[in-house]
Structure formats: structure tokens, C-alpha cells
Amino acid sequence: MTFCSFENKVALVTGAGSGIGKSIAICLAKNGADVIVNDINIDLASATANDVNGLGRQGLPIIADLSNENEVNSMAEKAINVFGRIDLLVNNAGVVDQFVPTVEQNVDRWQRVIDIHLRGCYICTKTVGRYMVDKMYGKIVNISSVVGMAGAPMRTAYGPAKAGIIMLTKTLAIEWARYNINVNAVSPGYILTPLVEDAITKGKINDEVIIRRIPMGRLGYPEEIAKVVVFLLSDAASYINGANLPVDGGWTSFGSYGDAFNISSI
Ligand code: NAP
Fold first, then answer.
1. Tens digits of per-residue pLDDT, 58-80?
2. Residue among 39, 42, 200, 251 to mutate when testing ligand 1 (max atoms within 8 A of CB)
3. Do 96 and 195 touch, CB atoms closer than 8 A?
4. Which residue among 2, 35, 105, 260 has the highest number of C-beta atoms inside a 10 angstrom radius?
5. Cα dist from 140 to 68, 72, 265, whole Å
């Protein structure tokens, strides 16, 4: 689907080898952007970059662990050497929680989840933001989650990290508005990606129970997140700044008892 033009724009999408990030990279390319495809996995990043190239745009795969400042600096320098600019940034990379009761959790694994989500989003935004401030132009979208907006049991790393990403979004939106940089967040509900499919397969989450809690009665698709992210990166969203947009089939609006989809008994 094409609905806006990113001609001459360069985007960096983190964690773009898979799931939502891959969909965002492809949607951006379909709308005219060149895409720096970051991931921690070279094969996945290269596959997405090939998809971008197949759409007639330039896809550049770059491996970097976002929690590592040196690796992020090298990634940004390499991207600037190739393209000379980064106009659009999507902080998307992520991992899941341990899914065990808090008293049984391993502190190092808790820290790793915080580091990839919150520290990674901070380091990447700070690093790329420097180039955006110089150019007096930039659009940033951070991927948070409905779990960053309301408590979920055992999500002691992911939830706080995603909540932190929402506040990081608002803080930078205010600080950088004067530089013509928009910073917004998107909070997906449950989306059918490899991350969620794996959690379902391993019994960490129960999709049947989750679906009953979703007013639209189904999980979302990566493309349904990608289109919203691309909108927020576009000039159509030029006056939206510091917002956090849930894209969740109605999940965060549901405040009643029982099933959200099958409400015939109410
Ligand atoms: P995904 O399919 O697992 O994709 C995430 C990608 O990020 C993977 O390729 C992953 O590599 C990569 N990654 C992990 N750690 C990284 C690091 N340190 N540096 C660079 N890349 C790294 O997940 P997804 O479902 O598309 O999720 C994308 C984002 O949406 C995440 O931030 C997630 O929290 C958020 N989100 C997802 C859902 C959902 O229902 N799917 C809901 C709300 C929010 P590996 O596979 O090697 O780890």
C-alpha cells in the first residue's frame, strides 16, 4: 500500500530482520524510502535488505546490538558514509521476558531485556538524533506496547522498559520539537510475528485466552502496525508530536468484565 512519499528520504529501522520491523522496512520502501536494515542477525537483515532492493530502493543491512553504544555509533557512521543522512528512525528491536514468577527471575536476564528495549532505544535515538539536529529535520517512532501502558503479571522487565520508552518519547518530543524533529510512539497489542508465535508454541502465552480479551476478536498483523508507523513518519502527521498511539484492536479501551469479543452474555 502506498499513501505518502518518502522520495530522497533515508530510514533506519532497528530489528528489521523479522516481524514488525521487517514489515515497516518494506512499507517504507514501497513508499519511496531507502532503508538501513538493522538487526542482530545478519541473515535476517540481509533478507529484508534484499526485499527493499527488490522494490527499487536501496536496502543496507547493518548488524549492531543496540544495547552497545560502540556498535550503534559504528552503525550510524557506516549509514552516514553511504547515504549522508538519516531522516527517519524506527526503534523497533526487542525481545521477550522470562515469563516466570518474579521471585524466580534471573536479574541478569531482567537487565538484558531492559537494556535491549530502553537503553537500546535511548542510545540509538541519541546517536541518530545528533545527525537530525544538524539537518533540522527528523521523524522518530518508538515501538512500545500495551504492556507498557497497563500491568501484566511476570512482565517485570518488558513492561517497565516499554513504559520507559513512552516517557522517553515524550521527553525527546519536547526537547527536539524546536529542531523540527517529531518523536512519537506506537503501542501494539498482540501481533502475529515470530516473537509471538514462538511464545505461543512454547506455552509462554495462550493465544485463545488473549483473543477473548481483544474486542476485535483476533490478533493483529505486522502490516497493521507498519502502516501506522509509516503514517507517523510521513508529513501527514506533521503536527503529531509526543503521542503514544495504541494499535491493539481495542485492547486498551476495554474496561468491562468477561470476554471482550463475545459480549452476548452482558
Ligand atoms: P521479532 O519478530 O522477534 O523481531 C524483533 C527483531 O529484533 C528480531 O530480529 C531480533 O533478533 C531483533 N533484535 C533483538 N535484540 C536485538 C538487539 N539487541 N539489537 C538489534 N536487534 C535485535 O519481534 P516483533 O514481534 O516483530 O517485535 C518488534 C517490536 O514490537 C518489539 O520491540 C516488541 O517488543 C514490540 N511489540 C511486539 C508485539 C507483538 O505482539 N509482536 C506487541 C507489542 C510490542 P533475534 O530474533 O535474534 O532476537
1. 999 999 999 999 999 999 999 99
2. 39
3. yes
4. 35
5. 20, 16, 43
